[in-house]
Design goal:
- The protein is of the alpha/beta class.
- It folds into 2 domains: 5-192 and 310-401, 3-Layer(aba) Sandwich (Aminopeptidase); 196-306, Alpha-Beta Plaits.
- It has 10 helices and 16 strands.
- The chain has an 8-stranded mixed beta sheet with strand order 1-2-4-3-5-16-6-15, sandwiched between helices. Strands 10-12-8-13 form a 4-stranded antiparallel beta sheet, covered by helices on one side.
Length: 404
């Protein structure tokens, strides 16, 4: 390995420009044929066929549809770096008028996972073509099911995706429609919130709407519980601890204009950044809801489905990545990110090893690429793909060079 870091950087940028049209083609194909979480069969086959076409070794069927690929440089046992992309789409009907519009009614790549998967394929190709210029092994994780619990990351970890060989760190890239194309963002330390799902079932005694005194109205009970639970964020949470409690769905089982139902169901999400407060708040919410229901003659079954942990970027790794990004793109193209109340199952990886989860700008107002993720009109400026494959390739190689 005789190439200087400057030569490596120039080689990566040249290969990114060369392979960009193919990555765009892959992204459009994946976008046109989206698949929901843990159903990514065709996407997985495309990933496997593409990687094998590049001469890359793959392990298939990890956590169902997941794929793990290994790219070996010189002295492959010296150090291993992992890179991750998620593959699943969302249950959203696409409203974009583009040639690669989703062909699957009610299913859309509205969170950019088509971008992530195509980008990592492009990265794998660049790394395979430069493998004689760097030392170590790079492990590429193509992950299913990021959008639903328990999250494909946790299942891939359980099935040994971070073993044989074990990486010393992991990088993940995510689209950012609030960042102009050409820019990328990093945040060392705590970055994204934990997330838990809440399911409440309030049971009362239904009856005629004109005779409420003969009933136990679960709708009134639910209203008291909804109002009271917001005290967790407004009064119990420390002012310095960002906390979100959103109850986004409420339905009665039965009921009409003149019918009081027997049962009301509520669903919501709870998010924060501290594991101790997370546990305490959920205990308080459960106790409060059950107590209010019992005090009003009803009952409340309060189910909590534990979701993703807090995503914490390892500080030294992320700072090195930020410097590497500035070396590749220029300091003016690299920004500092604020914390986000959204969550990501990449956090499971950061529970196991140092991780860096960063953002790739995809916004272009001239092309009307301004919609947020999880919307029916989300799309990207595909020029971001060239930058994305160059940056992730450079971050992986730069980290392999640390300590040499």
């Amino acid at each position: 390995m005789s190439a200087s870091t400057e030569q490596l950087k120039e080689r990566i940028l040249a290969l990114a420009a060369l392979h960009w049209p193919e990555v765009v083609r892959l992204r459009r194909h994946i976008h046109q044929y989206p698949e929901l979480s843990f159903r990514e069969e065709a996407t997985s086959r495309l990933v496997v066929e593409t990687l094998r076409g590049y001469g890359i070794e793959v392990n298939i069927g990890v956590a169902g549809t997941g794929v793990v690929a290994h790219i070996y440089g010189e002295d492959p046992h010296s150090k291993t770096i992992a890179l991750r992309a998620d593959m699943d789409a969302l249950p959203i009907q696409e409203d974009n008028d583009v040639v690669y519009k989703s062909s699957c009614p009610g299913v859309m790549h509205a969170c950019g996972h088509d971008v992530h998967t195509a980008s990592l394929l492009g990265v794998a190709r660049i790394l395979q073509e430069t493998r004689h210029l760097w030392k170590g092994t790079i492990k590429c994780l193509f992950q299913p099911g990021e959008e639903v619990l328990p999250g494909g990351a946790s299942l891939m970890i359980q099935e040994g995706a971070l073993e044989h060989p074990a990486p010393v760190c992991i990088f993940g890239q995510h689209v950012a429609p609030d960042l102009e194309v050409g820019k990328v963002g990093f945040r060392p330390g705590i970055y994204m919130a934990s997330s838990d799902e809440l399911y409440l079932t309030i049971r009362g005694k239904g009856g005629h709407g004109a005779m409420p005194h003969l009933t136990v109205d679960p709708i009134v009970v639910a209203a008291h519980i909804i109002t009271a639970l917001q005290q967790i964020t407004s009064r119990a949470a420390h002012p310095a601890m960002p906390t979100v409690l959103t109850l986004g769905k409420i339905n009665s089982v039965g009921g009409a204009t003149n019918v009081i139902p027997d049962e009301v169901r509520i669903e919501g999400t709870f998010r924060t950044f501290d594991e101790q407060w997370r546990a305490s708040a959920k205990e308080q919410m459960q106790r409060m809801a059950v107590g209010i229901a019992e005090g009003m003659g009803a009952s409340c079954a309060f189910k909590i489905v534990k979701g993703y942990p807090v995503l914490k970027n390892e500080e030294s790794l992320t700072l090195r990545a930020k410097v590497a990004a500035m070396e590749l793109l220029g300091a003016d193209q690299v920004v500092d990110l604020p914390i986000r109340m959204t969550s990501e199952d990449f956090a499971w990886y950061t529970q196991e090893l140092p991780g860096c989860f960063y953002r790739l700008g995809t916004r272009n107002e001239r092309l009307n690429c301004t919609s947020g993720v999880h919307t029916s009109t989300f799309d990207i400026d595909e020029q971001a793909l060239e930058l994305g494959i160059a940056l992730m390739s450079w971050l992986a190689i730069s980290e392999l060079l640390v300590g040499e």
